[in-house]
Amino acid sequence: MKKYVNIALSLTAAIYTCWYMHFGIPYKNSGALSTIGLEHKGLFVLWGILTFTALAYSISIAYKRYTNTKAYIPLLAVAGIGMGLTLGFDFDYDIKPDYYLHCGGSLLFSAVMGVTIFLLFLLCYNKGRIFRAFAYITGGILTADIILLLIYKETGLIEAVPIISGYIMLGIVNCIKEKRNEPTLQTK
Fold first, then answer.
1. Where are the alpha helices (DSSP H) in 21-95?
2. Where are the alpha helices (DSSP H) in the chain?
3. Which of 10, 40, 117, 126 shows the smallest number of beta carbons within 10 Å?
4. What's the start-to-end Cα distance of the chain, in Å?
5. What whole-number distance in Å separates Cα of residue 21 and Cα of residue 162?
6. b/e per residue, 83-106, with b = 16+ CB within 10 A?
7. CA distance 160 to 55
8. CA angle, residues 168, 38, 51, in degrees to nearest 5
């Protein structure tokens, strides 16, 4: 049942993110999710809640399934605080305190959520090729995202690619069948 809820939630969040981005130009600042949120506050809040819920649910399932650590719990709490700041304060440069709290929250959410996903794949690195591949892909996405953010500032694609990639990779690892280690008979 969790698998189907995970798929439905992630698919809904991914479709909503793509639809929401149509209000701006995804490769420009006008397509940044927060910029769109200035004109469509309710839709932005819905996007934030849906995004956090989908990622947090997928992360929780994966950590419980593949690891023995509960390190994801405080990380998700910090990411949730970041999303709360992002949604609670406007991305309005004219109102400096709001702007800085919004940007700080957005950065906190993105960085901590990305690290949480990357950490999952690192912890599971020896569990299979899929985890190794996703560890490299996640590391590459996070690195490219930081570089592109420094070069181009905020755009919808720079924000959405890591989020949608997270939906996809977490969805895959939550849906694959785990190989069971069968005990073998040893003869003397």
1. 33-39, 41-66, 72-88
2. 2-20, 33-39, 41-66, 72-88, 96-123, 129-152, 156-175
3. 126
4. 44
5. 14
6. bebbbebbbeeeeeebbebbbebb
7. 13
8. 20
Contacts of 135 (CB under 8 A, 6+ apart): 118, 121, 122, 125
The pair of three-digit structure tokens given for residue 154, joined into one six-digit string? 């905020």
Q: Is the dihedral of CA 17, 18, 21, 27 positive or negative?
A: positive
Per-residue pLDDT of the chain (188 residues; tens, 9 = 90+): 788 899 999 999 999 999 998 888 887 777 788 888 889 999 999 999 999 999 999 999 999 999 999 999 999 999 999 999 999 998 888 888 999 999 899 999 999 999 999 999 999 999 999 999 999 999 999 999 989 888 887 777 888 899 999 999 999 999 987 665 444 444 44
Identify which of 111, 156, 158 has the alpha carbon closest to the alpha carbon of residue 18: 156
Please answer whether residues 67 and 116 qualify as being in contact, where contact means their C-beta atoms are separated by less than 8 angstroms: no
Residue 177, class by beta-carbon neighbours within 10 Å (0-12 exposed, 13-18 middle, 19+ buried)? Answer: exposed
